[in-house]
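ESCALATION

Customer reports they have been waiting on this structure for their group meeting. Please prioritize. Original submission:
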Amino acid sequence: MSTSIPGHVLDASAPDLQQSDPPITSLHLYRRLFQGRKHLFAPSDTSSADYFIENPVPHKHHGSWKPVFYRGDNPKYTPTATVIGRAFRTAMWSSFRLWLGDGVREVLENEARAKAKRKAARKAKCRKVFGLKPKPPKEPLEDEKEVLGKVVVVEMRRRGLFTRKFDWEVDGVQYRWSGTRMFSTGPMKGVKGWTHDLKLVRKSDNAVIATFEKGRWASYSKSIRSGGPPNKKKLLIGKLQISSLSATSNVAAPLSETGHPALSNIQGRIDDALSGTPKIDEQDLNLHGFHAGNLTADAIALTCWIVVEAEHRLRYKVLDILEEIGESAGG
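Update from on-call: job pushed to the front of the queue and completed.
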C-alpha cells in the first residue's frame, strides 16, 4: 500500500519544521485485514492496541464509508473496548466530519433502537396487509435514551484537490496535517513526492505537535503474526509520534450551539451544501458530557488515520471510476 502523492502535485513549498520536543506518545499504525477493513494503533508489535478502527466498506461510494473508532483493542475479543468516534466523508476525499467522544457509543445504540422499531413497524404493517395476526418482535423494543457522554464535531478539509494539507479544529485550537521531508536522508531529502511522511502543526505558532513516519515499502513487507487473537496477523504501516498536547499558546475560539466554530460556521454550512457532507443531527451533540480519555490525543490519532487512508484511496480513485463505468456498460 502506498500513500504518497506524485511529485508534480505535492505541495511542499513551505520549509519543514523540526520537531524539538521529545515524543510523549509513540504509536504504530497497523493494517489488520485485507483491503483496509480494520486498522489499529499500538505502542509495539506485541502490545495491545490503544485504538482500533473498523471500516466494513473502505472504498467504493462515500455514502457507505462509515468507519467506527474504538478506544482499546479488537472489540471482537475485547469487551472493554469503547466506541469513541465515527466519521463521514465526501466523494473526492476532500472533506471529513468526525463525531468524537464517549457519547458516540450511546448515539449508535440509539440509532440501533430506532432502526429496530422501524423494522418491527414494517413487519407489523406487512402482516396486517396479508391478514395475519400480530406477532411480537423476537427481542423487546427499547426507547431511545439520553446521551450522557461527550459528543463533539471535528471537521477536516483538504486545502485544495492536489495538496497534502488537511485543516481541522478541536477545542478551539486549529491544526494542519501536511507532508514533510524531515525524515528523509541522503540525496532524496530534497526530492518532492518521494516521502510519504506527515507532520501535524498547530497553526497559531507553527509548532510541530505530531509526526507520522510511513514505511515506504510497507505493502511489500511481511505481516507480523502473533499466533492468536485479538490480532493474529497485522501489517505495519507507519509510526505516529505525539510530542505535545498543550494548547496554551492558542486562544480558544467560541463555539456555536451546533458545536461548530462560530467564525467558520457559515462557511462550513456552505461547503457542506456544495460537497454533500452528511448533516449533523444536533440533538446528538453533547459538548459538556464526560470523556474518559484525552480528546486532543484521540483526535490526533484518528485524523492521522483518515489522512493516511485518504491519500492512499485518492490515488486509486480514477481506477475505481473506470471500474464502475465498465460495470455500468456491462463490461
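Sent to customer with the following note: Residues 25-103+147-328 form one domain.
Escalation resolved.
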